[in-house]
């Protein structure tokens, strides 16, 4: 596990703050950034390594910092999963049951060496409790991302019909 503040490259912290912009009408407040730095983790996944597998009981929400991730759904043919989406820097990747205590519906795997800023669901709930304004802003970002992913899925489905 690597904390965001452990990065020597100042641009990385700036990129993360920019992602969370919109929280109280500007960049992330310094105290919020320091708070998040104690809660969220930056993890490295080598090419081909999975962030989670379909059926896992815990799948974090992740902000792709560097690299790319593919989201997959198993089919009746175990060697031919359906590609649900590709995620690059600045995008959120998470399983539909992220906030529920259910097995993951999908698998997420790194396409290349990838850095992910991970936030387990329990940590999001902690933020919502301890810092409601920050938690609500993160939750809005998550819902916005989920909405965009659904819109893209709907567009892809119309190609088949």
| Elements, N to C (H/E) | HHEEEEEEEEHH
What does the largest sheet look like? 4 strands, antiparallel
Q: What overall geometry do the principal axes of the alpha carbons give? A: globular
Task: Bin the helical content.
Answer: 25-40%
* Distinct helical segment count: 4
Derived from helix and strand composition plus strand pairing, the structural class reads alpha+beta
> What is Rg?
16 Å
Strand percentage: 15-25%
Can you characterise this structure?
Strand 4 (69-73) and strand 5 form a beta hairpin. The longest helix has 29 residues, at 132-160. The protein is built from 4 helices and 8 strands; from the N terminus they run ααββββββββαα. It has a 4-stranded antiparallel sheet. A 4-stranded antiparallel sheet has the order 2-7-4-5, with no helix packed on it. The protein is 37% helix and 23% strand. With 161 residues, it is an alpha+beta fold.
Write the layout of secondary structure elements.
Layout: H1 10-19, H2 30-39, E1 41-45, E2 50-52, E3 61-66, E4 69-73, E5 82-87, E6 92-93, E7 107-110, E8 114-119, H3 121-130, H4 132-160
Antiparallel strand pairs: 1-8, 2-7, 3-6, 3-8, 4-5, 4-7
Helix pairs in contact: 3-4
